[in-house]
Design a protein that fits this description.
232 residues, mainly alpha, elongated
Length: 232
């Protein structure tokens, strides 16, 4: 009886593994054929049967994103982010994309950074982080990421758009700096003008207050008396 048990058990796990592989293969095929809705059905079975199949989770998350099931994609990516191994950069980047889609730009920026910590050469994360930084107004940091992305992907189909955006940001920064310097100079000149005015008024008042005065001829003088003193 025990012998049968040990014979059946490996067969059982082998059959489960084969089933998971079949579901993944079918899901991957449909995914590659740009049929994410049907692919997700098989990929869901694949990850259920084999929770260690990281690529199945990756494809399932993308399939969910492509069918506007963003919250489900986030759940899938989160399930495997901590154990994604060599696919950590991919998973973190895709999770960042999902949060970006929901408008959570700070979260998406953090995840793009996590992707780059896992793989400094993962170019899509530089582009994603640059876009997130644009959304939260960190323009100079965004330019740095855009330039790094173009250095890594010189033939990117988005190169023209990115270069125009970089040029616009730099021009705006230059104009803002010019205006700041002009405003500072105007403020300095105005402060000098006011100080001169105050100095002139102060000098004028001091001149009036410090003028020398003659002997007073007012009530302090002894009154004269004409007539005789009478002693009683």
């Amino acid at each position: 009886m025990k012998k049968r048990f040990f014979i059946v058990l490996p067969w059982f796990f082998a059959s489960v593994w084969v089933s998971a592989q079949d579901n993944f293969s079918r899901g991957e095929e449909l995914f590659m054929r740009n049929n994410p809705a049907e692919a997700s059905v098989y990929l869901e079975s694949a990850v259920s049967e084999n929770p260690m199949h990281i690529k199945a989770f990756l494809y399932l998350g993308i399939a969910y994103e492509q069918t506007d099931r963003t919250d489900e994609a986030i759940t899938v990516y989160r399930q495997v982010l901590g154990r994604a191994g060599e696919l950590t950069a991919n998973i973190a980047n895709n999770l960042g994309n999902a949060f970006f889609k929901k408008g959570s730009f700070s979260d998406s920026e953090s995840l793009y950074t996590q992707a780059l910590e896992a793989n400094r050469n993962y170019a899509p994360a530089y582009l994603g982080r640059a876009n997130a930084r644009i959304q939260r107004g960190a323009l100079q940091e965004a330019v740095t990421d855009y330039e790094q992305y173009l250095q890594m992907e010189p033939r990117s189909p988005q190169r023209g758009t990115i270069e125009r955006l970089i040029a616009y940001i730099k021009a705006e920064a230059f104009e803002a700096e010019r205006k700041r310097l002009v405003a500072e100079e105007v403020a300095r000149l105005e402060a000098e003008r006011r100080q001169r005015l105050l100095d002139e008024v102060s000098a004028s008042l001091q001149g009036a207050a410090g003028a020398s005065q003659g002997l007073s001829t007012g009530a302090e003088n002894v009154e004269g008396y004409e007539g005789e003193f009478e002693l009683e």
